[in-house]
Amino acid sequence: VVGGFFLIARMGWAPRRGALVVIMLAILAYALLTGARPPVVRAAVLAELMCLALWQGRQVLAMNSLAAAAIVVLTINPCELFRTGAQLSFLAAATLISFGRWQLSVRSRLDPMTRLLRSVEPAPVKLIRSAAASSWTIFLATVFVWIVAAPIMSYRLNLLSPVAMPISVAVFPLVSASVLSGLVLLALELVFPPLAPLAAAFCGASTGLLDSIIDHSTEGCLFVPGPQLWWVLSAYALMFIGLCWGVRRWLARVLTYAGLTLVIAGFGPPLAAELVSRREPAPLRCTFIAVGHGVSVLIQTPQGGAFLYDAGSLGSPWLATDRISSVLWQRGVRRLDGVFLSHADVDHFNGLPGLIERFAVAGVYTSHQTFPRTLLDEEHTAPAELARLLQAQDIPVHRLALGDRVDLGGATAEVLFPTLAGVIDSDNANSLVIGIESAGKRVLLPGDLEGRGLEDLLLQEPYPATVLLAPHHGSPRYDPPGFARWSTPKHVVVSSALGVSSSTANLSYQAAGAQVYSTAKSGAITFTFSEPDARVETFCP
Q1: Burial tier of 136 (Cβ tally within 10 Å: 0-12, 13-18, 19+)
Q2: What are the extents of the domains in the chain?
Q3: pLDDT-derived band at 360, boundaries 50, 70, 90
Q4: How many whole angstroms from its chain centre is CA 262?
Q5: Cα–Cα distances in Å, from 403 out to 149, 416, 455, 462?
Q6: What is the pTM (predicted TM-score) of this model?
Q7: Which CATH superfamily is domain 285-538 in?
Q8: Residue-wise burial string across 278-301, b where 16 or more C-beta atoms lie within 10 A, e elsewhere
Q9: Is there a contact between 442 and 413 (Cβ–Cβ < 8 Å)?
Q10: What is the pLDDT of residue 491?
Q11: Which residue from 161, 437, 171 is spatially nearest to 284, judged by alpha carbons?
């Protein structure tokens, strides 16, 4: 609509200043209608300033206008300074402005003879040349934006999308066609409805093709470990120097060497640490990840293995996936050697599908009661859907029972419950209980064990544990005093949200001489089992 009014003003079909007033009001209305989000406010301020410059007959300064837009956005909400969306929006806009200046300088260097020859070319040749030049310009602009945004994308979102560069050439005209045909459809509905279906068909075809391209492009997205903050700041400092001082031979050489040094400094130490860790066995390390009301325990074994016990949270699956992924990347984990699933409650496994997209998973270990023995087409429960996903991804499922042992590489996981048949009770009562032992230290992970399952476990020989995951998120329903006497833990971790765990359970463990920690208060809690006892680190002191 704004473009239409601008065209009318340029053609002289309406008073110029009157058209500019309509354009400015339309821009303001659109910004308010869409909730005044930072990218919209930025674009609106730039457009309004351009209209004011046209009103006064003055030239608009793009970078100054962008700075004014930043002031407006920060005045509305100062917190936008620290939000990734706003940062990327202004970063992309500044990159496109700089790219536009560079393009103008390149075109100005075109010799007059070439311009003359191109001006007399046949119309089809001009059309093909213009389309090719536009496609190349769109591709180059996307490459520039992608390179500039890559450091902050990998740092804040752990995501890189190289597929955006080639598909931008197809997406840009499709977006334009969808918007224009949609506007034409609205206009035809008002003035000549019989032609509206034609515009609707064109709009539907454009959006359908656009949707198909985007769906298939998700395979070109890469989840990556985020770099350190100093690396990101150094990368942008080099970009800023190159932008301010232009492309000079000596400066290009200096920036090239500095960039190579930055790459080596960023990727060298992690690679060296990984090689050293493979050669020199490290102590067993267990990290109880803060996922809210849920459970996820990262087990890193002496021989470099990485396993998870549960991977879920009560709430958004993607929240659980993001929190677990951030810990895995921070610890240098690229591949999961196995995932133990305690039972069929979603707050213990709903983050696993997202993790499968980001990490290679060698296998899943669970009890015989977690997944349906036979997957029926009409069964669409959460465990059944997860089982289908594992089948589709060719991830083997290993069913465990009492007495089974799994070699973790320098540590052993022993199944303490359930039996092959399990108990006739709830899913919680059939939770997979495993004890992990390495160098005389034990970690007891009982899931949400309760009811008859808990009764059967307490009838077995006691299992003295160095660290215990409190069953059922610290609920008092599982006989905390009896469980404390049976396991005699030195450290107890309650994995839950704030206000969920019971003070009764905490007091029971403290009375037994254990130190009690909560992921709700301390964040991620890491135990490193070096001599003589476990070393404890909490994310929040």
Answers
A1: exposed
A2: 1-92, 120-226, 230-279, 285-538
A3: very high
A4: 24
A5: 52, 6, 17, 15
A6: 0.76
A7: Ribonuclease Z/Hydroxyacylglutathione hydrolase-like (3.60.15.10)
A8: eeeebbbbbbbbbbbbbbbbbbbb
A9: no
A10: 95
A11: 437
